[in-house]
Amino acid sequence: MRIHLLAFALLFAACALPAAETGAVRQAQEQMAHIQKLADAGAASRKQVEQALSALRQAQDDALIAEALATRVAVEELTEEQSAEATGAAARRLERQLAQLAQQAQLVSEGVAPRTSLVPFEEELDRSRRLVDAMEQRARSLADIVAMIRAEQDASDQQPEPHSIADGAIARITRFAGENTFGNDEFKHVVLEFEKKFDHKLPVSARGDTALHRSMGFDHRGRVDVALNPDGLEGRWLMRFLEQQKIPFFAFRTAVQGQATAPHIHMGPPSTRFRAGD
């Protein structure tokens, strides 16, 4: 009975963790249920229940990490909550691997297991560390985009510049109103001209509606953020081209008061907040 109550409490805590439903998660859940039945019948030990629970938690955390690192998922398609969950999952995974390596090292020191048995544990630990690094890097990239969104919103009421800004020094945040709309055709034109000029892709950091913008309550439809420094050669060219095409944009330099945002250029009108019912 004690095993049953312990497993129930731990299983409830584990299942409360949000995780993508994957084959590995389902398999771990089935194994957990099987071990629980054996434990109820007195045929499985407390240690076996805890091991099954640990495997389930690992499968859930791996699912979170895989979802966040999937190549099909752009950084801006993650929310801050999803990023935090996946980063936490990677940290928990690392803690489990450290504990497993320590347990195996104890068996080696006692002469119960050969030293070579540590190799797979060490390899898995190295993989877990690399996953933590990857998730932390992704979280930093997401934080940069969040800062961009907030800086853009703070600057939305700024008055447009009355003169050209492409050739001279610009303020921390500069707005060009433009007279034309900015849609798919205009964006394609910008992309083609940029690639023709610089022989590489335009470094787009967020295009149109994204999960991150929605989670923060901002309408980013018909807008594009580009990771270019307005003071750099490519940034100045882009601003000049947008001026010539009369396309509205914001230019953000490195030093934005109150914001830890990276330099970038926002093409299109300011992002607006969603209204109730949107």
Summed up, the helix count is: 8
Beta percentage is 5-15%
Q: Averaging pLDDT over every residue, what do you get?
A: 79
Radius of gyration, in Å, reads 26 Å
Task: Give the termini distance in whole angstroms.
Answer: 52 Å
Strand order of the largest sheet: 1-5-6-4-2
Regions with little confidence, pLDDT below 50 for 5+ residues:
1-19, 255-260
The total of beta strands comes to 7
What is the chain-wise order of helices and strands?
Answer: HHHHHEHEHEEHEEE
Bin the helical content.
Answer: 55-70%
Quickly give the structural class: alpha+beta
Count of discrete structural domains: 2
Q: Could you describe the largest sheet, including whether it forms a barrel?
A: 5 strands, antiparallel
Which word captures the global form? elongated
Structure overview:
The protein has about 280 residues and is of the alpha+beta class. The chain has two domains: about 1-150, no CATH class; about 160-275, no CATH class. About 55% of the residues lie in helices and about 10% in strands. The chain has helices at about 1-15, 25-40, 45-70, 80-110, 120-155, 185-200, 210-215, 235-245, and strands at about 175, 205, 220, 225, 250, 265, 270-275. Residues about 1-20 and about 255-260 have low confidence and may be disordered.
